[in-house]
């Protein structure tokens, strides 16, 4: 029986790559893609599929226990490609609490030996229209957090989010802007995320990826689908279901010198409703077909 | 009785500026904001409110009659701040038809003596992931259309749309990219639109507005509201209902040398459902309070 792709329901166009397939060497599952899985299930799922790394989220990690998660991941021979997430550094009233929470996130990333701590910087504070001020506060917060991360061997990865999220999620809107912020700090302390979903539209993206060079701390792939779902936070698609041409992005980060994990992070109600094992299998197929192709 | 703002339902914070109020000198109503009005009703509404210009759309103009609309607008002492719209130049299979339609649009803009013909360039062709190719075709089409417009005294205004619309509406995503395209042509033939809704998030927007200078063919204002409505084409808000700080944008286009109309174009189901006269009155109040403030 031919496997079925999730969530399109279309028959699989290629066989599911088996564990040990060298094409999977860089692929990582961000656990948010298999939201129904616990940390233990996601780690087991990745190990069984032959992946070498997994992207984790702080809340499920806390549920499983931080030290227990670190041990489990190591026991299964996996690495943590990223920890999600720190950030939310734009509200002056909540700044002390945000800094404290980000220090904890850094400590968790250190314990997990995560390749990076992803930062979603936050939107405009409630009632504020001061976009420049919000952006300035992110830089000010990084001045505190970057050395704190550096001392613990943790690398912050600034994630530019699609401009659609500028008001309510992240005032960091382009890769170029993320690099402008990152360059005030040592490469080992602050890098950037290149996420196809967020940057694919940017006419300047090729120049910025080349500029990023060893600032690239994480490369994430998922697709841009239309029409956008009513909840735009869940608008990400499985690779191949949307409009993004992935191979040029992989070629560009490779040319910039990035040799790290390629993480698949998809927030999508239909994917979340499906069997995570089938989601993972679809991800393997679509990765070799649409990203490596 | 205090007037009520549309669509917020909040009491008006300032009196409605009366016809003849010098603060209204540059304000224009794009007729799409008062969608229920016919061309005749919209022209009468603008004239009664003391506006000096109106933005028109091709379909309602055709319904009223092109020559009749030109006469009506002139009779009421109005100018046409913009004609919407040409464009949709990205599909190779439809290119001949698109060019022909754009030539007609240029002729209509000439007849209406419109300040500019707004161009929404189109998204990715169905099934295509070739974003660079789609963008290239826009430039190729402009090589045909720009001189055609120039010969008729019409100025094309390239509109960068929010990156949220890149796949399905306009592969032209930033003001900088619009200027890169426009600069291949004479200033009199190809300018750009600065629309706060589309560009407010852009960290590079101030530099690009300054760069634009006399390429600015149209300045449009409306707000970015959250959460985004399910239909993101109808996500525009009345000024003051969202997250955009307008006065810096007006100051920037003024500093760039723009002295033209300030047009309000809002696609919003709640605004469309309301009495257009109340929409227009709200627009007058919000303009003096949120844009000129």
- Give the H and E element order of chain A: EHEHHEHEHEHEHHEEEHEHH
Work out the helix count of chain A: 11
Strand arrangement in the largest pleated sheet of chain A: 1-2-3-4-5-6-7-10
Biggest interface, CB < 8 A: A-B, 31 and 31 residues
Structural class of chain A: alpha/beta
How much of the polypeptide of chain A forms β-strand, as a percent range?
15-25%
Question: Into which percent range does the helicity of residues of chain A fall?
Answer: 25-40%
The dominant shape of chain A is: globular
Question: What gyration radius of chain A follows from the Cα positions, in whole Å?
Answer: 18 Å
Contiguous low-pLDDT stretches of chain A (5 residues minimum) are none
Please report the total strand number of chain A as a whole number. Answer: 10
The assembly state of the depicted protein chains is: homodimer
Mean pLDDT score of chain A? 97
Query: What does the largest sheet of chain A look like?
Result: 8 strands, parallel, barrel
The CA-CA distance between the termini of chain A, in Å, is 24 Å
């Amino acid at each position: 029986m031919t496997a079925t792709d999730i969530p399109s329901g279309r028959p699989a166009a290629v066989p599911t790559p088996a564990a040990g397939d060298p094409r999977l060497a860089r692929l990582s599952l961000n656990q948010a893609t298999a939201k129904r899985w616990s940390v233990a299930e996601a780690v087991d799922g990745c190990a069984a599929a032959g992946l070498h790394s997994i992207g984790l989220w702080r809340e499920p990690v806390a549920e499983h226990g931080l030290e227990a998660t670190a041990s489990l991941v190591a026991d299964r021979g996996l690495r943590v490609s990223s920890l999600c997430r720190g950030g939310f550094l734009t509200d002056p009233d909540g700044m002390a609490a945000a800094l404290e929470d980000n220090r904890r996130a850094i400590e968790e990333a250190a314990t997990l030996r995560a390749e990076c701590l992803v930062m979603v910087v936050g939107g405009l504070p409630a009632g504020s229209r001061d976009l420049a001020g919000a952006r300035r506060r992110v830089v000010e917060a990084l001045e505190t957090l970057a050395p704190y991360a550096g001392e613990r061997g943790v690398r912050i990865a600034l994630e530019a989010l699609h401009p659609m999220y500028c008001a309510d999620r992240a005032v960091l809107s382009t890769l170029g802007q993320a690099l402008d912020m990152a360059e005030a700090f040592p490469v080992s302390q602050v890098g950037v995320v290149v996420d196809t979903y967020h940057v694919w539209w940017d006419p300047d993206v090729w120049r910025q990826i080349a500029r990023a060079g060893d600032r690239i701390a994480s490369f994430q792939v998922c697709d841009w689908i239309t029409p956008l779902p009513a909840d735009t936070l869940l608008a990400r698609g499985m690779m191949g279901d949307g409009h993004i041409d992935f191979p040029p992005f992989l070629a560009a980060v490779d040319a910039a010198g990035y040799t790290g994990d390629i993480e698949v992070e998809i927030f999508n109600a239909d994917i979340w409703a499906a069997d995570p094992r089938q989601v993972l299998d679809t991800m393997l197929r679509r990765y070799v077909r649409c990203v490596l192709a």
